[in-house]
Amino acid sequence: MNIIKRSSGLTLIEVLVTVVITSIGLMGLLSLQMQAMKATQDAGNRSQSIWIFNDLSNRIRVNEASSSSYAVGGVVCGAIPAPVCSNYFDGGANRIVSDICTGPQLAAWDLFEVACGAPRIAGVRGNPISNLPGTQLSVACVDPAACGDGDPLQITLSWRARIDTTEIDGRIRQAGDNLISQTRTVNP
């Protein structure tokens, strides 16, 4: 008497199909995690940009008597402007005391400090703009024909985004280069 026993295990094909389906699911989760990380970094960059706008706007309002001195177009980080208009530490125990500055000198210092950072310890980021990739900051008069102290100024901040979508929040974007540009108007 021959008794035929039936196998109740899994076949190799069933195991392979399960592995393929599981792999596809894990790749989808990995892609979702990467997109979430990019979106988180972009949200952090937007928070930094708001901080920069508020910082520069407040500096312009405080120096209202020389507000037109802020309208220099783009800010270039080269040499530290002279005189240095704020106290800072040199990385040791030494405090460098600021010079006495005029309104236009303070405007030049404010732009440098916001865009480039104050003199600081090597390797330490001294300003939020250093956290934004590919940052460009510019300040211009809203009406270039009548640009005097107390007139409205337009601050434009641009940086590279991590994610690329056609619409981020209605802000102006350059096609294909992931550049986000935000503009705010300041009334000193």
From TrEMBL:
Domain Type IV pilin Tt1218-like span(s) in chain numbering: 32-111
Keyword Iron on entry: no
NCBIfam families with a match to the protein in the record: IV_pilin_GFxxxE (TIGR02532), type_IV_pilV (TIGR02523)
Keywords recorded for this protein, A-Z: Membrane, Transmembrane, Transmembrane helix
Keyword Ribosomal protein: no
Transmembrane segments: 12-32
Protein known as: Type IV pilus modification protein PilV
